[in-house]
Amino acid sequence: MTLRLHLVRHGQTTLNAEERVQGWDDSALTAAGLAGVRETAEALREVAFVAAYVSPLGRTMATADEILSHHPLVKPVLDDRLKELHFGSYESRPTLSLLEVGDFATIGAGITAGTFEGFGGGEHSRDFVARITQAFDDIVAAHPEGEVLVVSHGGTIQTLIARVAAYSGPPLANASVTVLERTADGWTLSA
Q1: Which CATH number is 175's domain given?
Q2: CB 146 within 8 A of CB 5
Q3: For 151, how many CA atoms within 13 A lie in the half-sphere containing its CB?
Q4: What is the pLDDT along the chain (191 residues), one digit of tens a residue?
Q5: How far is the C-alpha of 94 from the C-alpha of 109, rounded, in Å?
Q6: Can 71 be counted among the known catalytic residues?
Q7: Is 15 annotated as a binding residue?
Q8: What local confidence, expressed as pLDDT, does residue 100 receive?
Q9: How many domains does the chain have?
Q10: Active-site residue flag, 84
Q11: Is 153 labelled a binding residue?
């Protein structure tokens, strides 16, 4: 029995293009973002998805809609637990403003470990890790095998794959697909 989670990061948004922090704040897909999502949708056209789970933010729902247009029998399940980290007072600010808190590598390691206190008024990483872990545990319990689509956010996906498959690579690109496969031997990763 093999389970494959096709983890898709949403397409490029206006805030992404402006290099602004985007956690729970939302913005529309850009024209380039939509084009990238359509390429991803085409690449996933032949995958026989048994289920689809989607963060309820507009950018992820728009991404999922494009992908699922090729899979009309698969209805998306919206799950708040798949949302990005809440960045508090840093939401929509320039991404470089995060350096006021620390360097990106240290912040990222703290988020993955669940030890980062969070950004002013935002979510503690322990809570973030707990909610995404529970979401993915529930998805795995519901689908012990098959192809499952998960449309979420860069930080959410990256935190998951760092924790279960020791991913330590660069940030995930918009509209990228990362496949996390579970077999009797555990989890393996391909991008």
Answers
A1: 3.40.50.1240
A2: no
A3: 30
A4: 799 999 999 999 999 999 999 999 999 999 999 999 999 999 999 999 999 999 999 999 999 999 999 999 999 999 999 999 999 999 999 999 999 999 999 999 999 999 999 999 999 999 999 999 999 999 999 999 999 999 999 999 999 999 999 999 999 999 999 999 998 888 999 75
A5: 21
A6: no
A7: yes
A8: 95
A9: 1
A10: yes
A11: no
Give me the helix-helix angle, 154-165 and 125-142, nearest 10°: 70
Angle at 157 between CA 153 and CA 161, to 5 degrees: 170
**Cα four-point dihedral sign 77, 134, 189, 104:** positive
- Residue 16, annotated as binding a ligand: yes
Interatomic CA distance for residues 37 and 184, integer angstroms: 32
State the greatest distance between any 2 C-alpha atoms of the chain, in Å, as a whole number.
47
CA–CA gap between residue 16 and residue 88 (Å, rounded):
17
User: In terms of residue numbers, what domain contains 186?
Assistant: 3-190
* Selected catalytic residue, list 10, 71, 86, 153: 10
* Active-site position among 6, 66, 71, 84: 84
- Residue 131 identity: R
Residues in the chain: 191
The verdict on whether residue 88 carries a ligand-binding annotation is no
